[in-house]
Design a protein that fits this description.
Blueprint lengths: L1 E2 L2 E2 L3 E4 L4 E5 L10 E4 L2 H9 L6 H19 L5 H9 L6 H11 L8 H41 L2 E5 L16 H8 L4 E6 L6 H12 L4 E4 L4 H6 L5 E4 L3 E3 L4 E4 L2 H10 L4 E5 L4 E2 L16 H4 E5 L5 E5 L12 E4 L6 E4 L2 E3 L3 H9 L1
Parallel strand pairs: 6-7, 6-9, 7-8, 9-12, 10-13, 12-17
Antiparallel strand pairs: 1-2, 3-4, 4-5, 10-11, 11-16, 14-15, 17-18
Bound molecules: 5-S-methyl-1-O-phosphono-5-thio-D-ribulose.
């Protein structure tokens, strides 16, 4: 999608320099900086520091991480140790584990070092291409939902949480893909963007990407959606997910659950847009999912531009106050109207999710 009218992806392999490039999302929306990843440590830092974030993009970055680790190691017997380091970065987004396993599947005993190196790069590139295609499919299916609301009302107000936009994927996004399709089909859409404390992915990233695509949007504090729902100013909620367990519960950015409860109270449809590799096929009980707990400084500190346009971080809490920062919450399936997947729109329950696997 576009930044300053130029088309970008969030991650790509630079063939000339033989390195992986990413957009450093910790600098957005203030500065557009492209960073190079050349080795495993670069990849681990990029994921930990959240220069890349969002489940599908974490997965794609991890995939290139396996390739870079192998390229630098030149020893397939040591790759498992390296891979475990990648797996230990962020525990909740299942796409990370899916992508690493998908990379390992191309390391075959009968292949030479250079054949494996090539297969790994091909596989990482393929993971990116496949992600784009999945997101486009989500866009096509989700567009129909927005279109039918538009047919009734002539305008659709959409609430979204965190950033499940193209910046969280390779291109198009999950929750935003239907919105981009709606815009391209000239529907009148407006997006309420949850700021999404503590890291403000909504305000810093979702609003930024929607602005760049000329989509009307308004940032709201995380506490504001309730009154908007009461006033009839939200027609539909669309969020992404870091993991949907096979029984149908949804794990997504902290705050998603509260929005889903409020939406149910007001009969507002609550959709979760996911590619197939966000499904955790093994886990039935959400208590078995590790919810990442991040440093409480993410709450305590706020980042912005000072008067000289330098990026600055300031402390906004009383010194000595404790803060607690779980990064995700669980939305039980009863609050989810439907899942918008790349294979179609389904109810979020074990039967329909398992059916999807067999298609
Ligand atoms: O902590 P983040 O920024 O990686 O969390 C991202 C989210 O929670 C997104 O909503 C989710 O990954 C869906 S991305 C398509």
């Amino acid at each position: 999608m576009l930044i300053n009218n130029k088309s970008y992806r969030t991650i790509w392999f630079d063939k000339k320099k033989e390195e992986v490039k990413i957009i450093d999302q910790t600098k957005l929306p203030f500065y557009l900086e492209i960073v190079s990843l050349n080795n495993l440590d670069d990849v681990i830092n990029a994921i930990n520091l959240m220069q890349v974030r969002g489940a599908p993009l974490i997965g794609a970055t991890a995939a290139y991480g396996v390739y870079l680790a192998y390229r630098n190691l030149k020893d397939k017997n040591k790759i498992i140790d390296q891979v475990n380091k990648i797996k230990n970065t962020r525990p909740t987004a299942i796409n990370l584990f899916w992508a690493v396993d998908s990379m390992l599947s191309v390391i075959k005993d009968n292949l030479s070092f250079s054949e494996i190196e090539k297969s790994l790069l091909d596989q990482a590139n393929k993971i990116c291409e496949d992600d784009i295609n999945r997101c486009k499919k989500i866009g096509e299916f989700g567009f129909k939902i927005i279109e039918s609301l538009h047919n009734k009302k002539g305008k659709v107000n959409i609430l979204t949480h965190c950033n499940a936009g193209w910046l969280a994927t390779i291109d198009w996004g999950t929750a935003t893909a239907p919105i981009y399709f709606a815009k391209k089909n000239n529907l009148n859409v407006h997006v309420w963007v949850d700021e999404t404390r503590p890291r403000n992915q909504g305000a810093s990233l979702t609003s930024y990407e929607l602005n760049n695509e000329n989509i009307a949007n308004t940032i709201i504090a995380d506490n504001t959606a309730g009154i908007l729902m009461q006033r009839g100013e939200i027609d539909i909620c669309i969020v992404g997910a870091d993991r949907v367990i096979v029984s149908g519960d949804v794990i997504n950015k902290i705050g998603t659950f509260l929005k889903a409860i409020a939406a149910k109270e007001f009969n507002i449809p609550f959709y979760v847009a996911i590619p197939m590799n966000t499904i955790d096929w093994k886990t039935k009980n959400f208590k078995d999912v590790e919810i990442e707990e991040r440093n409480s400084n993410e709450l305590r500190n706020i980042k912005g531009l000072d008067e000289k346009n330098n990026l600055k971080t300031v402390d906004v809490y009383p010194k000595g106050s404790k803060a607690y920062n779980p990064a995700f919450d669980i939305t039980p399936k009863k609050f989810v109207t439907k899942l918008i997947t790349n294979k179609g729109i389904i109810n979020s329950n074990i039967n329909e999710i398992l059916n999807l696997k067999n298609e």
